[in-house]
Amino acid sequence: MQNIKNVIFDLGGVLLKVDYKASEAAFAQMGLNNYQEYFKQDYSSALFEQLESGAITDLQFYEGFRATFKTDASDTTIKGAWNAMIGDFVPENLHFLQSVAQKYKVYLFSNTNQIHYNCFHAKYAKQFGHNDFDKHFIKAYYSQICGWRKPNPQAYSNLLEAEGLIASETLFIDDTLKNITGAQEAGLQTVHLTNISLLNNINL
Fold first, then answer.
1. SS3 content of the chain, % helix, strand, coil (to 5)
2. Taking CA atoms, which of 66, 94, 121, 165 is between 20 and 30 Å from 105?
3. Is residue 146 classed exposed, middle or buried when 0-12, 13-18 and 19+ CB atoms within 10 A define those classes?
4. DSSP E strands: which ranges in the chain?
5. Measuring CA to CA, which residue among 5, 8, 1, 3 is closest to residue 136?
6. Do 114 and 144 form a contact (C-beta atoms < 8 A)?
7. CB–CB of 52/149 below 8 Å?
8. Domains of the chain as residue ranges with CATH
9. Coil vs helix vs strand at 74
10. What pLDDT is recorded for position 36?
């Protein structure tokens, strides 16, 4: 890593614990054993992509979910299983983020959705007693708000252009390999974080 001026962090698997198997198990308890065919860490079907890009509302997602999985589960039941994957924030990683922010411009870029957004912001407030998570960053980019999704290289280019950043001076940290590949195609320097506990090992 050379000439770094900016650092873009992913959220899940980097600052926030995510357990994809927890949602898979929750949906299995509802009798939906093929959920992982539609959503997992490195794959989203059209319905989930629409949710994550802000193309459909939460209510439209629930309706689409019921149609896709042929279930009569309530919105609340689907929401609970969908949010089961969202864990706690890692305090040590937030401290690392704060130290990085002393030296570099820091941003967040997360593929997420409004249902998860509401969930993890509530978890942050419960953990730390205040809800100012986004203030850790110059700006937090969430896919359902900005409409850009990783790993599309253009998504990274859009963020760089919006913030006036140079790709070669920008480091992107993510736990999903295909997102790293997309960032590299956009010209960013990258770190593939293979374990959430290793963030502090990055030499910045």
1. 50, 15, 30
2. 121
3. middle
4. 6-9, 16-18, 39-40, 43-44, 86-89, 105-110, 139-142, 170-174, 189-192
5. 8
6. yes
7. yes
8. 6-17+89-201 (3.40.50.1000), 20-83 (1.10.150.240)
9. coil
10. 86
- Contact between 93 and 200 under an 8 Å Cβ cutoff? The reply is yes
Write the pLDDT tens digit of every residue in 70-108: 999 999 999 999 999 999 999 999 999 999 999 999 999
The per-residue pLDDT for range 98-139, each reduced to its tens digit, is 999 999 999 999 999 999 999 999 999 999 999 899 999 999
Q: Which two tokens stand for residue 108?
A: 């967040």
CA–CA distance, 154 with 182 (Å, rounded to integer): 9
Which token pair is 169? 């001076």
**Which residue shows structure tokens 């896919």?**
143
